[in-house]
Structures are given as C-alpha cells and as structure tokens.
C-alpha cells in the first residue's frame, strides 16, 4: 500500500476527480427531488383523456372526459388511456435524460439513471 494509507498511491488529479464525482452525485440526488416535483401532461383523443406524470415517471393523475365514456366501446377508452399514459411517461424519460445531460456534461454513464 502506498504511503499515507492511500491504496492508489500518488495519482495526479485523483482528489479533484473525486470531488467532481461527489458533486455529480449530489447534483443527481437534487435532480431526483426536482423531477419528483415536475408535472408533465399528455392527452389523447383530442384532449378527452389526460395523463399527468412527474419527472420520475410516476403517473399522478388520469382525467377522462365523460363524453368519451361509452359502455359499448370500452376498448376505445382503454386505447386512449394507454396512449396518454405512454406519452406522459415518454415525456418524463426525455426530461430526465435532458436534465442528466446537464449534470454529466454529456458523458454517457450507464446505470446512473
């Protein structure tokens, strides 16, 4: 082991790199909290079905206009709900990816989010 208990020896810039990693971890944690407060809305059927998600990809709300509720065509309503939910989730994934780009400076860090 290197002098001073540092198993990596005297690697130039290691301290600076560790500070950057720590800052990135703190920024990522802060981002997760911010994403939880974001509200992303998606609609389908010309606004007849609305899904709201947060930036973490959690569905928070579904609104269905009573006009679209037709007991003889439940399949259409199901399709509209799936479409709105899918779009809301896609928006949350895109938002998170965009915000992570800001933190990582464009580096691809698999598993970070």
Structure, described:
There is one protein chain. With 113 residues, the chain is of the alpha+beta class. It has a single domain, classed as Ybab, Chain: A (2-Layer Sandwich), CATH 3.30.1310.10. The protein is built from 2 helices and 3 strands; from the N terminus they run αβββα. The chain has a 3-stranded antiparallel beta sheet. A hairpin with a 4-residue loop joins β1 and β2. The protein is rod-shaped. 11% of the residues are buried. The model has no long low-confidence stretch (mean pLDDT 86).
Describe the sheet with the most strands: 3 strands, antiparallel
Rounded to an integer in angstroms, the radius of gyration calculated over CA atoms is 22 Å
Tell me the strand percentage band.
5-15%
Report the CATH C-level class.
Alpha Beta
CATH T-level topology: Ybab, Chain: A
What is the total domain count?
A: 1
How many individual helices? Answer: 2
- Please identify, by name, the CATH architecture: 2-Layer Sandwich
Number of strands: 3
Low-confidence stretches: none
CATH homology group: Nucleoid-associated protein YbaB-like domain
The portion of residues assigned to helices is 40-55%
* N-to-C span: 34 Å
Give the averaged pLDDT, no decimals.
86
């Amino acid at each position: 082991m290197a002098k001073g208990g540092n198993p990596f020896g005297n690697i130039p810039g290691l301290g600076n790199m560790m500070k950057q990693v720590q800052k990135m971890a703190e920024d990522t944690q802060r981002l997760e909290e911010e994403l939880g407060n974001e509200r992303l809305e998606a609609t389908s059927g010309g606004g007849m079905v609305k899904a709201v998600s947060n930036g973490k990809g959690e569905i928070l709300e579904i609104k269905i206009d009573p006009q679209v509720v037709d007991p003889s065509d439940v399949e259409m309503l199901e399709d509209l709900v799936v479409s709105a939910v899918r779009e809301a989730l896609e928006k949350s994934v895109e938002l998170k990816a965009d915000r992570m780009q800001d933190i990582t400076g464009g580096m691809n860090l698999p598993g970070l989010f």
